Amino acid sequence: MKLIIKFNLVFIVIFLLGLLVAGKVSHTLLQNNARDEIIQNARVMMEAALAQRTYTITQIKPLLDNQMIYSFLPQTVPAYSATETFNIIHKKFPDYSYKEATLNPTNPRDRTTDWEADIVNQFRDGRAKVELIGERDTPTGRSLYLAHPIQIKDKGCLKCHSTVDVAPRTMIEQYGNANGFGWKMDEIIGAQVISVPTKVARTRADQAFKIFMISLTAVFLFIFVALNLMLTFIVIRPVTQLAAMADKVSLGDFDTPAFKATRNDEIGRLAASFGRMKTSLEKAMKMLDN
After folding, report:
1. C-alpha–C-alpha distance, residues 191 and 100, integer Å
2. Higher-pLDDT residue of 163, 276
3. Segments of the chain assigned E as strands
4. Closest to 179 (Cα-Cα) out of 78, 171, 143
5. pLDDT at residue 262 greater than cutoff 80
6. 54 CB contacts (<8 Å, ≥6 apart)?
7. What phi and psi, each to the nearest 5 degrees, are found at residue 94?
8. What are the tens digits of pLDDT across the range 42-93?
9. Whole-angstrom Cα distance, residue 169 to residue 174?
10. Which candidate, 139, 52, 49, places its Cα nearest to that of 94?
11. CB-based burial of residue 260 (10 Å sphere; 0-12 exposed, 13-18 middle, 19+ buried)?
């Protein structure tokens, strides 16, 4: 097997191993970065929901408390305010959603679905503390959810949700007396759930991975061609010429022109050594003839 073929086989094996390792590391890194980006977007949305709740409690509710005597205004409820705000966003970005999923809600639209109930129960039994992150399949594709527990920490909440007797009459008239009662202080009654699609970030990560692998392969091909040219002109061709001269000399052809050793490297020193050996052999053969 020729030297250049051996060299290329070794080089290809090393490249394939390097490509495999680089591909595995880069793909994992890009996917992890995509997931971190998705989680960061979800946390920003969660903070926006918390800000909306705080705004409602501190600035909207005090202005409308007196009106609650005559009619129940859901706009004074922080959960309603945050949900309505995100419903507007949901119309433009249907893959993004926010819900204050509650096991026993006053407003039926806030009732937990099966997977949301599982999230709430993980907070209730201690499997999750302050935050829960996961992924699930939806009709529109893979989605990441981020959830925070909803815990009764304000006694003011119990004015509407402890018993029917103490609840505002106007609220009962609007929602009835069957749901949203029996809440207790420090009880986890639901979870704020943000859902964010993973497709956009994952697609960008996949595109970046493809570009990286194509670029890496292109660099390899360039290096492969360059090294083959260097190996051919710097090593293979001189060695081939020396081998041909050695064959002729071994057959007694001393008229073979000497190899011009103009290089100051290993090949040059080999050529010079071969020239001296040819001269010495030629003199020895002449001495034997005489």
Report:
1. 6
2. 163
3. 97-102, 132-138, 141-151, 188-197
4. 171
5. no
6. 78
7. -65, -20
8. 999 999 999 999 999 899 888 888 887 788 888 888 999 999 999 999 999 9
9. 9
10. 139
11. exposed
Q: Residue 53: name the closest of 27, 21, 24, 85 by CA.
A: 85
Is 142 within 8 Å of 135 (Cβ atoms)? yes
pLDDT tens for each residue of 154-199: 888 888 888 888 888 888 888 888 889 999 999 999 999 999 999 9
Contact 122, 129 (CB under 8 A): no
Residues 6 or more apart in contact with residue 287 via CB below 8 angstroms: none
Ramachandran area for residue 12 (φ above 0: left; ψ -120 to 50: alpha; else beta): alpha
In sequence order, the β-bridge partners of residue 195 are: 97, 145
Rounded (to 5) percent helix, strand, coil in the chain: 65, 10, 25
What is the residue type of 164? Answer: V
User: What value does the mean pLDDT take over residues 272-286?
Assistant: 73
**pLDDT tens digits, one per residue of 21-34:** 999 999 999 999 99
**C-alpha to C-alpha distances, 208 to 68, 119, 197, 203, 204, nearest whole angstrom:** 55, 34, 19, 9, 6
